[in-house]
Structure formats: structure tokens, C-alpha cells
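ok trying again, last paste got cut off:
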Amino acid sequence: MNKVFIATSLDGYIADENGNIDWLDTFPEINTVDTGYHSFIEEVDGLLMGRATFEKVSSFDIEWPYKKPVFVLSNTWTELQGKFSKDAVLVNGTIKEVLEYIHKQGYKRLYVDGGSLIQGLLKEDLIDEMVITVIPILLGGGIPLFGELSKKLIFECKESKLFLGAIVQNRFVRKRT
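nice, full thing came through this time. structure:
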């Protein structure tokens, strides 16, 4: 099972045109509200993130934020780089090869993070659930959450929540026939 927990702008971007995510703090009080991240992370065995996401996390002035195993997908790196290089495992190959490797390690319920990675899994119809928190700001450009697909994918909205009278979070589950 592959799950997404991510925030987007109202126009569907996960980062601005410079790759920045400071717009997430448009409503800083959201950081004082339980948006379900901690319960979400308890439901997964590990995390699979893209290289750019790993680089972004590495750029923050924080301690390593994950308590579950983290796999970083990059087909350009031969080793992890940055201050957290010892905290994660580099994986490369096709998405299906990477998932097969991770599953053989015993991690079957994955939190998937990173725009290109999410788009790649969606192209392969390998996302089972998405929790998308929409911050009501229009960025007008940047890194989109979604890209082109070869077929339509139907998801059911299982839950919607409103935070601070402004931020909407929807939980979608893939409807398979």
C-alpha cells in the first residue's frame, strides 16, 4: 500500500517556481493543530521519497525528522549526499524495481513523498491513498503535484476536514474495479 500525505496550493503546486515551500506558513497557526500527520505516519512501515525532497529536508535547520526507515529514490546519485546521508538508504531503478526491493525488506505500507515520485507512481497506478491538504494561496506556478497520466484514475473522497476556517484536507482512496 502506497500512501501520500502532502500539502498543495489552491492551484495544485507543492513548491513555488524556486522549489521553496515557505508559502506553507501562510497560516502559521496550522502548526498548532493536529492535522492527522502523526496518526498517518503510525500507519506506515517506511517512507519512499524523491531526491529533491531529500535535498529539501536536508536543507532545513532541523534534526532528522523521521523515526521510520527512509528510502530515497535517485537514478542520478550513486550515494546519498548532505547532512542526513547516513539516515536514509539510496535506492535506484524503475519504480516497480524499487518497490519490489523495499517490499522484500519487509516494508509494505509506504508513505510516498516528492512531486516527481508521486507522479511516477500515479502513472503506474501505484498510489492507494492520498491525504491532500489545500492551503488557500495561488502560487501561479511551481512544482505541480499532478502530471500527465495514460489513463484516468478514480479516487473516492472518504473524508474532508476544515482547519482554521481556511485550510481543507481531503482523504482520497483509489477506487479499483
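cool. The mean pLDDT is 95. The first strand starts at residue 2 and ends at 9.
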